[in-house]
Structure formats: C-alpha cells, structure tokens
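User: Can you predict the 3D structure for this chain?
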Amino acid sequence: MGEVPSSHPRYHSLMGRRLLTEAAADGLLADSALIAHGRGEAFDYLLGEQTCPAARLAITEAAARLLEASAPIISLNGNAVALAADDMIRCAAAVHCPIEVNIYYRTPERMEALLARLEERKIAVAEGPQPDMWHPDFEHMTGEWVESVEQVDILGGEPDGRIPGLEGPRADCCTDGILDSDLVLVPLEDGDRCEALVAMGKQVIVVDLNPMSRTAKTANVTIVDELMRCSKLLLKDLVDGSANQSEKWDNGANLSASLAVMLDSLPQPK
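Assistant: Here is the predicted structure, written as structure tokens:
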C-alpha cells in the first residue's frame, strides 16, 4: 500500500488495512483475517465510520463492568493484536488484568508470533507516555504507570484448561486466565465461544460491528464500533474513573439503537 495522506477522508480505515496486511506478512494472521475485517468495514460504512451514541454508551458500560469485576481478562485474536495491541495493553494495565491470546486457526508459529508481538508492544507501551488523567493515588489506580504495564501477563502459550461446550482449538485456555475469570472482554465476533463463556456464568463484553450476529446478541455488553476507534474511548473511561454501571442496562435495546443508525444511513425511497 502506498503512502496515504492524513487528509484522506478514509485515512484511519486505510491505516487499519495497512496494519493488517503487514501483520499477515509477519505471520500473525490466518488467511481469512482480511475477509473478516472487510465484512466489519461494510457495517462501519453504515455507521458513517464514527462511534454512534449507542456504542458510546456501551463503551462506558463496558468500562464500569471491567473496573468492578473481580477477575477480568482481555482475550485477543490475530486481528485484534494487529489493530489495537497497544491500547488493549493500556486497558489491561488500567484494569490490572492479564491478556490471553485465543485463536481459531491455532498453529505454534502463529501463537509464537502473536505472543512475541504483544511482549514487544508491552515494552513500547511501558516506555511511552502514560494516559491522560492517570494518577496512582486514585482508588482504582494502584502503582505507577510503568509498573502497571509491566505487570500485565500475556497468556495463551501454554493452555492448561478447556472451555466446556466448545470444540476445536478455541476451547484451549489458561486456568489463571479465561478459565478463572469472571468477565471476558472479547473484541471480535465469535458466537460459539461467546455462548460457551456466558453458559459458564461469565460476563462477556464484545466489540462487534455486526449488531445482528450471534455474538452481539449473546454478549452481556456489545460495543457496535470499530476496534481501533472504541479502544481509545474505552481507555479514557477506564482511566478517568467516571464510568458507572447502569442498573437498567438493556443490551438488546442498545443493539437496536445501533442498527437504527445503520438503517437511517440508507437512501430512503422517494
């Protein structure tokens, strides 16, 4: 992909494509990864490639639940690592939780590459600037920023448990990660795993641009938004401490609101 000027109206989307093509060349992605991303882009077009009000509410709800959970975890696949590794590490540091790599097309080579990439980015995040409003004396922020980042465990290389009711390599997981968690943030569409995690009694938060998917309908909180865009907003809500869990959260209603935005973007018959 050639150079894209920052003034291009679809600059951020094109940068996402670049990250994915580079990750594919580095062996991080399955052959179907770009197809999955393209499917999501189609829904993002209908959102006007911006975070809609319903998604913003879902992000705040997700932040509140992450902060209130006893044992949260962030579960990433190849696309999520390629697109948002740095911000997912920052979110994990803010919540003081591990990250676990869990992929469908699992090979030793891909797992090694993904785990290495996350460890590499963890060092870069620790050496970079801390988020705005980070303050180690705030109630939900314990320790300095660098220390919080360094304490983020990267799991998935040596799974020692299995998710009940799930077939294939996605069932493999770590006891001190997904298996013992009470809340899982899964920033991708994965209906079978979402259903299995909910059946285990876990809260599941997903990022899925398709509000009609099984994943979106099964999760406790669904953020209908593009991952790179919403991860920055999620980090903001985690750090500033303003997120409060809604006593009347209705994920179905929130999905309907997101779908309404998409439908309203379509040309109306004259």
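The chain has one domain: 53-264. The mean pLDDT is 89.
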